[in-house]
């Protein structure tokens, strides 16, 4: 099995967690995904652009972020091995993105264009269901994160992150983790030194 076949098999496993597809459905969907490789710190989507692709992360780490006044950026979400990536609202609505998407590490991805995604999901109800469930799951995760950002103390946010995703400390630079939690980097460093799980 070559690298592309392995990547597609990984994607298939993730998709089938939401519900099995028939051979015909998978055989229509799989060829729409194309492998791409990016260097570290490559911008995949720029604010103001329409997201043209949905990505499946085979290897690497990416982040979506917003740049506010004074050029201060806020990390919104990370994606890494085995997860979907892209600016989903821009992709599905085909409207300009408010956010940036960049690779934090060298990244190997599979990507599908909006035209292929729209065509295949419009043809096969099981794939449309997968797209709907995936979007709902992403929305649910964002709502939980919003509650955490609005109501949790700095230590509670830090503990939740490390309980949910302890591996991120080795994968993602701490300044981006601090931004993701809405914390000052100094506060993040103090929590890293003092909080034990």
Folded structure, characterized:
The chain is an alpha+beta fold and 197 residues long. It has a domain at 3-126: Jelly Rolls, CATH 2.60.120. Helices cover 49% and strands 22% of the residues. It has nine helices and eight strands. Helix 4 (114-123) packs across helix 5 (125-151) and helix 8 packs across helix 9 (185-194). The protein is globular. 25% of the residues are buried.
First and last CA, distance: 40 Å
The biggest beta sheet reads: 4 strands, antiparallel
* Discrete helix count: 9
CATH superfamily of the domain at 3-126: Jelly Rolls
Q: Spatial order of the strands in the main sheet?
A: 1-8-3-6
Mean pLDDT: 92
Pick out the low-confidence regions.
none
Percentage of residues assigned to helices:
40-55%
Number of E-type strands = 8
CATH class of the domain at 3-126: Mainly Beta
CATH topology of the domain at 3-126: Jelly Rolls
Shape estimate: globular
Question: What Rg do the Cα atoms give?
Answer: 18 Å
Helix-strand makeup class: alpha+beta
- Please provide the ordered H/E string of secondary-structure elements: HHEEEEEEHEEHHHHHH
Question: How much of the residues is beta strand, in percent?
Answer: 15-25%
CATH-defined architecture of the domain at 3-126: Sandwich
Describe how the helices and strands are arranged.
Elements: H1 3-16, H2 23-29, E1 34-38, E2 43-45, E3 53-59, E4 61-67, E5 73-80, E6 84-85, H3 88-93, E7 100-103, E8 107-113, H4 114-123, H5 125-151, H6 154-164, H7 168-171, H8 174-181, H9 185-194
Helix pairs in contact: 4-5, 8-9
Domain Cyclic nucleotide-binding: 38-129
Organism: Larkinella punicea
Pfam families: cNMP_binding (PF00027)
């Amino acid at each position: 099995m070559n690298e592309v076949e392995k990547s597609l098999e990984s994607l298939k496993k993730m998709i089938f967690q939401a519900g099995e597809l028939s051979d015909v459905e998978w055989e229509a969907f799989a060829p729409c995904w194309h492998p791409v490789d990016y260097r570290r710190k490559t911008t995949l989507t720029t604010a103001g652009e329409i997201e043209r692709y949905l990505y499946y992360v085979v290897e690497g780490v990416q982040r979506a972020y917003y740049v506010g006044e004074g050029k201060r950026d806020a990390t919104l979400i990370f994606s890494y091995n085995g997860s979907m990536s892209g600016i989903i609202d821009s992709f599905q609505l085909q409207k300009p993105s408010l956010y940036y998407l960049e690779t934090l590490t060298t990244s190997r991805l599979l990507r599908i264009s909006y035209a292929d995604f729209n065509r295949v999901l419009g043809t096969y109800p099981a794939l449309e269901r997968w797209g709907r469930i995936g979007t709902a799951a992403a929305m649910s995760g964002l709502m939980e994160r919003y509650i955490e950002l609005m109501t949790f103390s700095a230590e509670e946010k830090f503990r939740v992150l490390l309980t949910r995703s302890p591996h991120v400390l080795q994968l993602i630079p701490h300044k981006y983790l601090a931004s993701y939690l809405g914390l000052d980097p100094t506060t993040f460093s103090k929590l890293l030194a003092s909080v034990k799980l």
